[in-house]
DNA sequence: AAACTATACAAAAACGTTTTCGTAACCAAG
DNA sequence: CTTGGTTACGAAAACGTTTTTGTATAGTTT
């Protein structure tokens, strides 16, 4: 087992100084053709690779972007990561991903770990628990130490930094407007509890759409789900006792479960009930019937986030604090769960 | 914007030496109670955090595990990552994840980047392109430099290291045996092209099961799919012209698409056609009907992989080269797409 | 009083780089 | 023969730690 080779090894072996080796490898013209070739040949032979850690320490930058997401098991986040990776790699940055598993503690631990030297900047979607706690000290402190942070999707108003968000309200409104346009009048809303930012915003969109059609809100058609992982029965029994001809769900899972429930009632989709979900993932695409859904352009979000972050990193003129919030448009993907 | 604070800053501020500060913070009894408290108070006040990069350089270890997976957008890999994270975090290791996007080049780049100082060891599932190329120099070289590597799921025989695999053949065989047991006799196999390791192994399992039942292989019932991302039509037309009463698919997507095709033919599932897929992901769980499937226990794989790697890392007695291959059992999850 | 022993701290080395500065050797010009 | 300029290299500092070694002061033995 060969050990990792360093400049020092090369220097000793060739009986020259470390600085000469370093310069030779970088093609510095200060070093004679002769020595340069000799060093390069030796380095190649022994497969020399500069130690990144040492470089990071020296340069005080790591060329690494840290991404922290609430859950890895999520199509939308996976897409965002793709976008981030594309832009990052193009610009010579490495991407490292950590998941907070929606836990406040893990988010803090990951954040502090990565903030103390391992990365140059953060792209972050805030964990559910953190949003509940409303404790953002780890984030704000890191920002105040000069490390750029870009928030996406699950953001918080109290944090001053660049943000990439989806216009959730608008997307939801468009979706519900479409349900209304194609004839639905009693539209069920399957949403999350209020402290979940995105659930809340999408709920707003639902309300606005109804208002735009001058329909009054029937609170009994709204179900706020707490336990996302275990809500199949809840949705089923809720839908059993209602009269409705449309469903808007704030995520894919709710939509798919609703579809199942409706089919159990022997109602036809989309003729008796039209359904629209949120997030264009695998489920919507492969459900039966395929689901009309609001797409969030996750990859584009990732790209934008990475662009913003890298721009900040490479133009670190201090003092000039200016934060941007970019809103990514949603798009309604028409499939078989709605008419027209 | 406060700068990041270092030992040097503290030392200068309190007019003592750097070593005293370091020792004081670590509670070294060589330092007087007085000084110790003063330093700790100051450090706390200014939120001092040791620089990880410097620590890594000094200790020549990073307490970081690098995970490279072929695609992030994949339920199975996401589950494995969960398992890895759980074990890693419990042992004080950080996990960083990179995706190769199934590209050989990206795999090599990620690998070399992380191998040169950023991580202590690797957990890796080999990219499709790499398996095709059969070029594993980046991996074998890293191993020979003393960095532990654990391969999982998509492994290669030519690489000597610890491996965690699923008994794909056995899992597939069990599945097909189940189809046979519940009455199917003409069973379609939807698989991938041969160089994909897992597809190949699962195909073997299919063949073995038929042999166990003394059935002869009907090659016309086997479809080898090249373009996984774009195979809906292919599956549809293949199934249109065949006689069959069972389908075994080597992944979730194929199974779901087959389900759709069968329903289009107005055959009933599971009565006319029984279907089993591979991988227990979202699709199988939420498809209509829900799909019987072979579960790979992804989290368990991740846990095992992390355990193996950490064990190697913490018992670096050189010389002793011993590699283990752990086989994780599969489990047939019974759902609505099969009888009984 | 000489010789130890604690105590409490400082200095320096090391991890692997890069880069600035210094300098020996050589040659040309005055 | 002195000065100046190249050429080709080496020394050293720096990044932020930890740790080993060194040392001044004070107190304790004999």
UniProtKB/TrEMBL annotation, chains A, B:
SUPFAM superfamilies: lambda repressor-like DNA-binding domains (SSF47413), Periplasmic binding protein-like I (SSF53822)
GO molecular function: DNA binding
Signal sequence coordinates: none
Residues that span the membrane, as ranges: none
Protein name, UniProt field: LacI family DNA-binding transcriptional regulator
CDD domains hit by this protein: HTH_LacI (cd01392), PBP1_LacI_sugar_binding-like (cd06267)
UniProt-listed PANTHER family: HTH-TYPE TRANSCRIPTIONAL REGULATOR GALS, LACI-RELATED TRANSCRIPTIONAL REPRESSOR
Keyword annotations of the record: DNA-binding, Transcription, Transcription regulation
Organism: Aquimarina addita
Keyword Transcription annotated: yes
InterPro entries to which the protein is assigned, alphabetical: HTH_LacI, LacI/GalR-like_sensor, Lambda_DNA-bd_dom_sf, Peripla_BP_I
Domain HTH lacI-type: 5-59
């Amino acid at each position: 087992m060969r050990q990792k080779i360093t400049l020092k090894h090369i220097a000793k072996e060739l009986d020259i100084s470390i600085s000469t080796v370093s310069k030779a490898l970088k093609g510095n013209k200060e070093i004679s053709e002769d020595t340069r070739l000799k060093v390069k040949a030796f380095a190649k032979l022994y497969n020399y690779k500069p130690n990144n850690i040492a470089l990071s320490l020296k340069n005080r930058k790591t060329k690494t972007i840290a991404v922290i997401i609430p859950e890895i098991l999520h199509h939308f986040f996976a897409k965002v990561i793709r976008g981030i990776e594309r832009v990052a790699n193009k610009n010579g940055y490495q991407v490292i991903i950590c998941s907070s598993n929606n836990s406040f503690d893990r988010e803090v631990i990951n954040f502090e770990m990565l903030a103390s030297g391992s990365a140059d900047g953060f792209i972050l979607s805030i964990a559910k628990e953190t949003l509940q706690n409303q404790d953002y000290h780890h984030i704000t402190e890191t920002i105040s130490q000069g490390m750029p942070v870009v928030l996406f999707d699950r953001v918080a108003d109290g944090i001053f930094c660049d943000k990439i968000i989806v216009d959730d309200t608008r997307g939801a409104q468009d979706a519900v407007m479409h349900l209304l346009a194609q004839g639905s009048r009693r539209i069920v809303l399957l949403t999350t509890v209020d402290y979940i930012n995105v659930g809340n915003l999408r709920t707003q969109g639902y309300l606005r759409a109804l208002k735009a059609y001058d329909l009054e809100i029937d609170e009994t058609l709204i179900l706020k789900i707490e336990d996302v992982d275990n809500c199949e029965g809840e949705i089923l029994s809720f839908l059993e006792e209602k009269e409705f001809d449309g469903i808007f769900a704030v995520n894919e899972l709710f939509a798919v479960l609703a579809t199942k429930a409706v089919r159990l009632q022997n109602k036809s989709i989309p003729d008796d009930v039209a359904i629209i979900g949120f997030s264009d993932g695998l489920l919507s695409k492969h459900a039966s019937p395929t689901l009309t859904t609001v797409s969030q352009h996750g990859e584009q979000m990732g790209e934008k986030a990475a662009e913003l972050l890298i721009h900040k990193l490479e133009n670190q003129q201090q003092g000039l604090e200016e934060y941007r919030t970019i809103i990514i448009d949603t798009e309604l993907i028409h499939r078989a769960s709605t008419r027209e």
